[in-house]
Task: structure prediction
Amino acid sequence: MTEVKRSNGLAVAGFVLALLGLVFCWIPILNWILWLLGLIFSIIGVCRPPRGLAIAGIVLSSVSLIAILVFFGALFAAASMY
Result:
């Protein structure tokens, strides 16, 4: 009997979008879109097995949100100096 490998397409999509959100965290509009879609797809993907990439997508989305806030906080702090 052959073993059927299951995949979770939403988890993969969430992981990839969260990773792209982290890479492009310095682009103003694109970062929020990628972050939000990555988070949504990852949260939905947690409901289906296998959950590994969905959990990784949620973690990457969290790190991406922190990077977005730090980057734009530093940008606004530097702009307010002048």
Notes: Helices lie at 9-23, 28-45, 52-80.
